[in-house]
Known about the structure:
By secondary structure, this protein is of the alpha+beta class. Helices cover 62% and strands 10% of the residues. The protein contains 23 helices and eleven strands. It has helices spanning 2-9, 13-30, 44-54, 61-87, 94-120, 124-134, 138-152, 157-184, 189-203, 224-230, 273-280, 288-294, 315-318, 320-324, 358-368, 372-376, 380-395, 410-425, 437-459, 463-496, 501-511, 515-525, 529-556; strands at 207-214, 222-223, 236-242, 249-251, 257-258, 263-269, 281-283, 299-304, 327-333, 336-339, 351-356. The strands form three sheets. Strands 4-3-6-1-7 form a five-stranded antiparallel sheet. Helix 7 packs across helix 18. The mean pLDDT is 80.
Amino acid sequence: MDWINELLWGHGIAHSxxxxxxxxxxxxLLGRIKILGVSLGIxxxxxxxxxxxxxxxxxxxxxxxxFKEFGLILFVYSVGLQVGPGFFSSFKKGGxxxxxxxxxxxxxxxxxxxxxxxxxxIPMSTMVGILSGAVTNTPGLGAAQQxxxxxxxAVDDTIALGYAVAYPLGVxxxxxxILAVKGIFRISMxxxxxxxxxxxxxxxxxxxxxxxxxxxxxIFNKSVNEISAATERGSFVISxxxxxxxxxxxxxxxxxxxxxxxxxxxxxxxxxxDFIVTLLGEEVNMERKQWVRLESQLINRxxxxxxxxxxxxxxxxxxLRKLYGINITRIQRAGVELLATPSLALQVGDTVxxxxxxxxxxxxxxxxxxxMKRLNEPNLMSIFIGIALGMLLxxxxxxxxxxxxxxxxxxxxxxxxVAILLSRFGYKLKLITYTTQSANLMLREVGITxxxxxxxxxxxxxxxxxxVNGGYAWIGYGFLxxxxxxxIIGFIGRYFCKLNYLTLMGLIAGSTxxxxxxxxxxxxxxxDAPSVSYATVYPLTMFMRVLTAQLLILLFV
Length: 557
């Protein structure tokens, strides 16, 4: 029976993997339990680890340290891959306002943390743990732990204990803040939905299809190429033409000549419609399905780009119109519909809408790939190249005046930044960084559960003692760190910035990187409007949470 004793109470690899598996599985199961409609999700893995550690179930320190750091790396890198494509575009238009408000929430949280630190004398390392728990930000916890270890060569368990104590009420506090803003401003959800719908209709700039009849004498008997060359503005693609002379429909290419009274099917943006109508003719009430009925010899097919050789190539370089007589009208990337302009750089994983005959589309299909099997194959080389570059970047010391220790991005910041950059610009290095949503989610969840399990198993021995000996006050401090910044920025966002409440809910959830709050916001809104603002502020917020956690340790510990 010695083998059982060694398996349950020993310090070997088998014991460590068994204990981690039990902690993770139990935590995920318990995390599904909802109280008042709110569940802690995978964060319950942390609390199961604390409980088992309290009763003597621990793993070797070195093994714990390895799994914890490796799990953190997997988590932040997969998060970077997910948010990277939209990171830079999130600063456009209304995204600037949302990101500035989110940064305000982060900085106000740091300010409240500093005030409590100086008022109570609680060590800053503990306060950073409370801060990370109060805003439910696990990468911040990891960054703080690593920064402390780099400076002092030791581990401060109170960082994880502060996180664990503050986390549950942090989740509740975020949702209470969302409800408080609604009550203060007496918000009507019906009015918010109507306002958001109206704003979407006014500002929508995605691909839009219109039908026109050619009436401008200036373009009679001119080719599409000549018209495009003479036009200094206006993003549009002429997809098909219905000939007035013989009532036949054709796929448009650069050499297609337009004649008076020809009807054309044009893809453009909402803001360019008036210009396109003035340039080409008159808009006619002809829906897409009417074009489909006319196109007896044409089909419209969506094709996946899975050919790695096309990664980063511009659409115009392929000359698909000229070589195959087809037309690409739209491209979908990460849920966003893009206009198929010649200058658009393609990426593996894009979906293109192609119009042509069955035979011509078959030829294009061979060029683009359209292989789900190939797309589902993980690009492990790119992932581990990115992680290696992240380790390199995270280890570089940056010296700033007034800071006694060099600042490092660390195991959290380095991989996060590299993943964001590679997912956006990796094609320029011939790297295919695309991963399916399911693969990304698997990588992310494995990483975060390993990290939380190891944190719980490492901190559980002192948890009860810490709470009994005054740690219960940390719960209140964490609650203040949660709600004060959210209420202040919530008021500013609503009163001064006139944000729609559905958008504001997503902003609050995203600024705290809190999935339960997002789930609550989506359920309350009844649509995905909160998810849009959540995704807009999430990348910058995540980066700021990691950075500020490290700076607080380096400056005040």
